[in-house]
């Protein structure tokens, strides 16, 4: 594996970039693996990497039905933050943000982390109270969080409309300065390259069509490339968790919804932070190419089609223009959708399952991109040790029977 460095970049530039090797192998599947990870998105690839790095388990395959990062990892709006309300969620997402901060170095891959700050706007008195409560909770957990009043919001982001004449005037905002964005494809590719280097087989165009069991324990999977046996099978398929779990006779408390995003035509740098508003329901950042990257909430109906309805887009653009009249003459360039699996408490499941040797990582809803590094780390721990890492102990599947839910609807309210 050629390392990325100033020297290798310069040498390859002189050779017109003809000598770069492939970033990962494309092996045929073996008959048997210690662990099969289903799903080649960020979570699956990170899990495989940490299985090898932290636990020395390298006889691992990642099976992906399409191409790496072609699911939600390559469709999301790349917002990263850790300002969740409850301790359990705050600790998990904060660990993730910390891992993101060192990831380019750890994986020797530029993930283009941009800590430009994330602002969550407050538009009503109740919003203000909830936001301040969350800021206090964040501070108690050692997470950076500041309250900005309307004038400070305007100072921090001059193009935002803070006039009192709008439908929902901006009364203030929380600001997490360490929040921001990272390059989504780079996360998938960086973990794939690093996992492959450690001996993990990454197998694309390999759909899992069945999960084989013998006397209540999982023994392997059926795929479009044949039967593959495994000591352990780890599901990591974002919007298809219920479909995969059903193959093992497991019913999940998960609903699958479309979530859309879109980009405008590129413009000169005008917005150097991430702005989110629960009340008018839009969030926006500007990509390095100059496009505005926009998102909002889920479509209300269930679907596995990777597209959503027009009225959601219309509502979202209305909200954008209310906050940023300056964008009124911009053209939209592309819209797309992904399928997100949502749990009743807006928190993920990272857990062993009642089926022996079957593990589940899913239910990230609209906000799992920011969690990829920590999710991979703790899921790998759960698979390797057959017990949860302290950071995911609260996110087990049995919380839906014990009632120990972690209600993060407030912090996860806008899709992000
Ligand atoms: C429009 C949109 C915007 C979002 N914005 C943000 C954001 O700003 N910040 C944030 O934190 N999160 C955001 N999210 C959520 C985030 O994208 C996801 O939570 C995260 O990417 C999930 O990663 P994953 O690896 O679990 O899933 P994916 O990247 O979807 O990977 C799962 C993979 O499993 C594969 N698969 C499915 N079925 C099978 C099968 N039978 N066999 C083999 N492979 C299979 C799929 O092809 C897919 O590649 C957004 C999501 C969407 C859709």
UniProtKB/TrEMBL annotation:
GO molecular function: nucleotide binding; sarcosine oxidase activity
One matching Pfam family: DAO
Domain Rhodanese: 35-79
SUPFAM superfamilies reported for this sequence: FAD/NAD(P)-binding domain
Keywords (A to Z) from UniProt: Cytoplasm, FAD, Flavoprotein, FMN, Nucleotide-binding, Oxidoreductase
GO biological process: tetrahydrofolate metabolic process
Localisation per UniProt entry: Cytoplasm
Keyword S-adenosyl-L-methionine applies: no
EC number per UniProt: 1.5.3.24
Gene Ontology annotations for the cellular component aspect, listed alphabetically: cytoplasm
InterPro entries, per the entry: FAD-dep_OxRdtase (IPR006076), FAD/NAD-bd_sf (IPR036188), Rhodanese-like_dom (IPR001763), SoxB (IPR006278)
Source taxon at top rank: Bacteria
Statement: the UniProt record of this protein carries the keyword Flavoprotein: yes
Cofactor(s) the protein needs: FMN; FAD
Catalytic activity: sarcosine + O2 + H2O = formaldehyde + glycine + H2O2; sarcosine + (6S)-5,6,7,8-tetrahydrofolate + O2 = (6R)-5,10-methylene-5,6,7,8-tetrahydrofolate + glycine + H2O2
Entry similarity comment: Belongs to the SoxB family.
PANTHER family in the cross-refs: FAD-DEPENDENT OXIDOREDUCTASE DOMAIN-CONTAINING PROTEIN 1 (PTHR13847:SF287), SARCOSINE DEHYDROGENASE-RELATED (PTHR13847)
Record's protein name: Sarcosine oxidase subunit beta
Organism this protein belongs to: Cohaesibacter celericrescens
Source organism phylogeny: Bacteria, Pseudomonadati, Pseudomonadota, Alphaproteobacteria, Hyphomicrobiales
